[in-house]
Amino acid sequence: MRDVAVVGVGLSKHVSxxxxxxxxxxxxxxxxxxxxxxxxxxxxxxxxxxxxxxxFEGVNLPECWGAGHWGTYRKPLLRITTGGTTGGSVGHGAxxxxxxxxxxxxxxxxxxKQSDGDSTAGLNTVILADIAALLGFGxxxxxxxxFGGGAVGIAVYQASSYMKSSGCxxxxxxxxxxxxxxNAAKNPHAHLQQPGLTPDDVAKTDLMQYPLRFGHVCxxxxxxxxxxxTTGERARKLTDRPAYIRSVASCSDxxxxxxIGGSGTLNVDPGRQESCKLAAARAYEHxxxxxxxxxxxxxxxxxPFAHQLLMFYERLLLCDEGxxxxxxxxxxxxxxGELPVCxxxxxxxxxxxxxxxxxxxxxxxxxxxxxAGEHQVQKDVHKAxxxxxxxxxxxxxxxxxxxxxxx
Amino acid sequence: xxxxxxxxxxxxxWPLEQWRWKHETSVLAKKxxxxxxxKKIIGLKCPGCGLVYVPPKPYCRCLSIPDEWVEVKDTxxxxxxxxxxxxxxxxxxxxxxxxxxxxxxxxxxxDTQTLAILDGVDPDDVAVGKRxxxxxxxxxxxxxxxxxxxxxI
Amino acid sequence: xxxxxxxxxxxxxxxxxxxAFNWSVGNWMEQFFDGxxxxxxxxxxxxxxxxxxxxxxxxxxxxxxxxxxxVEIPETGTVEAFxxxxxxxxxxGELADLPEPQLIALVKHDEADTLLVAGLVAKNASAGMRxxxxxxxxxxxxxxxxxxxxxxx
Amino acid sequence: MNKExxxxxxxxxxxxxxxxxxxxxxxxxxxxxxxxSAGLKREDVSTVVTATNDYLDxxxxxxxxxxxxxxxxxxxxxxxxxxxxxxxxxxxxRILSGFHDVAMVIGVSLASVYATYLPGIMILDPTWDRxxxxxxxxxxxxxxxxxxxxxxxxxxxxIASVSAKNLDNAARNPLALxxxxxxxxxxxxDSRMLYSPIRELNAWPxxxxxxxVVLASGKTAxxxxxxxxVKGVGLCHDSYLTERPLAVMxxxxxAAEACYKQAGITDPASQIDLAEIHENFAHEELMAYxxxxxxxxxxxxELIESGITQIDGGLPVNASGGALGANAxxxxxxxxxxxxxxxxxxxAGxxxxxxxxxALAHGQSGPCAQDxxxxxxxxx
Lengths: 407, 153, 153, 380
Known about the structure:
The complex is a heterotetramer. By secondary structure, chain B is mostly beta strands. Chain B is built from 1 helix and 10 strands, in the order ββαββββββββ. Chain B has one domain (23-152). The chains are: A alpha/beta, B mainly beta, C mainly beta, D alpha/beta. Chains A and D meet through helix 2, strand 3, helix 3, helix 5 and strand 8 of A and helix 2, strand 3, helix 3, strand 8 and helix 9 of D.
């Protein structure tokens, strides 16, 4: 198999409302930044992989009218969309495009412009079809909101299940928010930047639905991310320190609209996330990583909800199950720590949904390439893991990056 | 050209009211709900892997079609739970008093989870792994509400 | 075709929901919209290849460069193609017959390189015919400022 | 490509106007039958790529509920939000990368669930065309047809003869939705006018259905009973419909060039034995003849008149009935791959063309065939 490496990353600034640009123009900001970062022009790229979560913008196949802004003129283009994992799936698609030998250099583009739609309505369309089935069971529609976890969705079930199994407390959740949002303050592209935030500040925010408070939940962002991938050979000509993508793996489990719908039966507890463990194990194996705890230098788990940072830290096999809260307390996850987690600020600080999982890969790549600027971690990053989560609690995507090829 | 921070917004919709989703579950539900009238909870068992789906499901992850109706118990184990906060129901519960506890429960004999309301239970008393029993109404109507409420055992 | 009745194995359900959207058009389209209010047709031009975009695009797709020149283009143009619409898409998303056919034209404005689509009111329409904009006397916004095209006499 | 990836199994459901089944059940049927066709079990598949569309399916993350019925539970699954033929290309990439050995590709949609023409309108430029209410897939295609006819002098009769051919062929395909044996050009020209020159019988029928294709690496395919090798692939995206010349399918031309280069095709008309073209509208098939190099630019009308593309001609096109015969969006292009493979294997029954060694399959996505993908398939 050919080596595949990241040679350029571009992100737009993420904010709640970008009303000065349209979707295509917003995405251009990330795309042009990626070309600049890679030192390439669109003419030197031979394929485009793109995706977003279209229900948020209300535009079907948005590349049909918008891609002219992204340097795609008469190029091969593949649209990959998988919900919350979309960005990760787009990154994986770009990886496979180069690894297959069919393309030498491709650009991965993922985005969301949530202010063009109604995020809650957008999210609700995830389950409307299931709700339609629920009505067949005579479920009282007024209960559905509470069942669905109100605005926070099924994450509340996942959170309480995880907290029970790990001993994680709401205090840990507060600390996760602090870790991420103070990191975000050093990332110019991040949305919620809260330098000086304290756990007490988070604990004082309103409870949405137990156990999640407003301070534990991601914002809705407008933003885009682009990443240029090429062969190892070409990457070495373009930069001294490319970020190799050693492997990617995804795993899909059963959709978990708990019970009743009959179509989501949740054989697995939403807090288990076996599919994340499976994806991580496969990705490490392909990447030649035998001992992720000691070999991985940095992690970008996809955590729009505070408990997920800890839960996915465990499911990415970076510590034993139930150990993550203690790892958090130890300070190891901090920017200067042993295994920094989300130095970018993570999804809890910035969530342009379709872009978020690509941003995890892009942030890991930037850290390896030493291009993260103010949020560059102190230690040298040799190997990093990037993750994405989505679907109805059932999709996980994992990418393993390194400063050397697989060998 | 004068650069504007706020430009014109064009309004549009996704007229989903025109969509008609198709579900086998609506048909399976009839049999499931009918059994509730006799205070029986039934599910479908998969011939391929033996999983029991409650409520019934038309397909299995092993690509077989669950086709055998089996009865499961009304006792269950809690797999996860939540309780409502001020923003549940879009904030409508604010100030109404006791939180509503909702648990994911797996009926004994079933391999899947469903949701149940634990009435009047203090959230501090709920825990994953605790057991519950359905609080049947005196005269079940053959609706999902018949098993919507459970109590801690 | 989309009756709500249950068939043998499948139920169909709809829900009365239509998510709403408001697309910000961006500064390039804004310039175009502002022009339409004054019955001016503004297009953006690529400084590298000279291509003129109508409606305006921020980026020239061929050069990947910002189109930073603005040109006011004539309200006259040529019909590249037209179709007689005997139907339209109704609110239910299906084709509904029109009482009488209406023409829809693809028009290349003089000095522009991309095309606009609008109605065409002409007795003997033909491809290649010269047309001019008919302005809407009472537009509700930019989208309906151009009412249709009519033949140039 | 030299024996690196092959189609080793395929299945299509019956194409219906209003299937008595959910999207999930159609997916399950196609997946099960494709596995049987490949002689494999679910466990043998390492990756699943589905092709669905959130706006057609009426739900965000439209692949969420297809995980289990496609056999993707706990596997490496992804979704291409284009036609299934593009999903097949992605599955081929996954296999060529060496990370995966056997891939299942499934495309599915139910037109009886969605409001037939709304998802197409939702593709249009939201800052201008969409809310102006004139363009939709059919009116846009009509404008394209007029551009094409004007540029090359193609006639209504020539376009109608595509429908007559394909719908007559469809009558030999037991799965096709619109079967019209002996359909004449006059009957096509008498059908209900939608947007001139497009009449009801020049346009795809709203269809429910699914198609699944199993692909395998060279090593595994070599053990299969009748592998159909993927000899070349190519894809290309074109500009938005008001920003490109509509009289030619430039992106199809570029996709075909890339594909032919890999497959060693230098004279498509003589080297290809059969083609399955994704023609949403009859005129698109004529335009595709030209873009695929079956004839010179502008000669598509003459080619259909010559009879070469008839089922008993020298280069039969859409022996299955094509998209005019059945068009379950997202499954249609994938079905072209399945049909092309079926012809190479010799399993096409009443619509089998004798002696097919090399076949072309084409898929498209977007208004006026904005995205195109081309495959060359062949036997040993």
